[in-house]
Amino acid sequence: MNDRILYIYTQGASVKNLASSQGDTAVLYAVWKTPAEELQKPYLAELEEIFNSYSSSNYTAEDWDLISNVYYVTEMLVRDEIDPDNMSFYCESAAEEMAVVMTKTERIEEIVEKWNIKHNDVIQNINNGVLNEDNCETEYNNAESALNEMTVKELEQYSTLLNVEDLERIAEDALQEINVHYEDITAYATAAMWVSGLNGSANKPLSEVRADSFELYQTLNAQYNQLSEKEQQQIDVDLTERFGQRLSLVTQKK
């Protein structure tokens, strides 16, 4: 059996002495290879389809730039590749990277959620009648903190966006959602201020309630009556009952 040697010649190559002896037969085989462009077509089409599934209207300019950048970088990688496995990997990676880019809705939710977490105590206590003389100062400060952060500028701190214009627009949208708490938190702060102004008047021992305190209790009562129903609902019922007892007593003594 004769040993055979395989030679590979590229297209257009100039060759001679194909046979070892005069008159021998040299067998040539044409080997066809799919051009890289043809191999790339389905992956470029897949990448295009992935990119077209997203709409710029759903993203901030900053986040749309991220998605676009993933598309263009991946397109270059595919066009420079000849291995289909690698092309497939590039497309899968691009799909994953695009999927994690936050939409406008998610950007708004990011701010709202972080604000809610920070001020959760106030939100949970609203309309539950928890205000008393022990917690009123703390609760007032918490309410004021929440109200002070209900501005576009303050809400921007809760976003990871860097583009100034995008950040402002998203914070404005987030503020619209957060503003649903404004009325309740304002009522909560107002009620806490009234409770703080009692200065122990509702807890004073009945034996120490004297006629000379009449004007003080009358003033506090007038202030209470000026509170709205929502504001009064924020106050512990036991506290208002204790205050009412002392108001009646001082009135009798007067």
Notes on the structure:
- This protein has 254 residues and is mostly helical.
- It has two domains: 36-101; 105-253, no CATH class.
- It contains twelve helices and no strands.
- The chain has helices at residues 36-52, 61-79, 84-99, 104-118, 120-125, 136-148, 152-155, 164-178, 182-197, 214-226, 229-233, 237-253.
- The longest helix has 19 residues, at 61-79.
- The mean pLDDT is 92.
Number of domains: 2
- What is the C-alpha radius of gyration, as a whole number of Å? 38 Å
Strand runs, count: 0
> What is the overall number of helices?
12
Low-confidence parts lasting 5 or more residues at pLDDT below 50?
A: none
Overall outline: rod-shaped
Strand content: under 5%
Q: Give the topology string: H per helix, E per strand.
A: HHHHHHHHHHHH
Descriptive terms for the model:
0% strand, mainly alpha, single chain, rod-shaped, 2 domains, 12 helices, 254 residues
Secondary structure blueprint with pairings:
Elements: H1 36-52, H2 61-79, H3 84-99, H4 104-118, H5 120-125, H6 136-148, H7 152-155, H8 164-178, H9 182-197, H10 214-226, H11 229-233, H12 237-253
Helix pairs in contact: 1-2, 1-3, 2-3, 4-8, 6-9, 10-12
Summarize the structure.
The protein has 254 residues and is mainly alpha-helical.
